[in-house]
Amino acid sequence: MHKRTYLSIFTVLLALLPCFATGTPPHALPNQNSGAQAESRIPRFLIEDLSPTEWRAEHERTRASLGDETYLALRKSEIDQKMRSSNDVLNDMIKAGQWKFPPVGNDVKPDRIGFGDGRVFDVGIKHGVPDYITDAMYATYGVGAGARSVPEEWLEFEVPIEKLKEEREQREKERQEALEMENTKILDGRYSVRDIDMGCFLNLESS
């Protein structure tokens, strides 16, 4: 599954989180037709209309016929199409004011700053960096300064290359584990477009 799919999934899940947590959407659509119009733009696949028994039979028949590799490609393609379309619809709804999020404060800042040569520095009280150094780092970041020109007192807060490498390897390991888990669920028939329900934010009642 490529990067856009992961971004789409993250965006949609972020939007649906209030639904899962409370059972109700944070805001209603302006009118009842909006949800139907949005839903019509999201592809619907034949397997979504099968009963559980019919789906199990279809899953086993298709997997046996295509083989695991081709079967995975088929189901992932369906999931990707649905998630990309859902993400596009959600973005359009946000732009049209049909779906609103709570305001996000502009005081949220990263706790690391990277420079063009690949060097990375911790910032913020979380890492024990004094406020005056943190403020100086934020002020310097983005104005074209290179890591070679940083003050000597910043150097103790540089993240070691070995640690950055370990973190990258850990992220890759977690990504691979998640991918393997997803593949297993698809091959078991436990994950498909049948399990992606966008109705939480599409079929809302007007306020």
TrEMBL record:
<protein>
    <submittedName>
        <fullName>Uncharacterized protein</fullName>
    </submittedName>
</protein>
<feature type="signal peptide">
    <location>
        <begin position="1"/>
        <end position="23"/>
    </location>
</feature>
<keyword id="KW-0732">Signal</keyword>
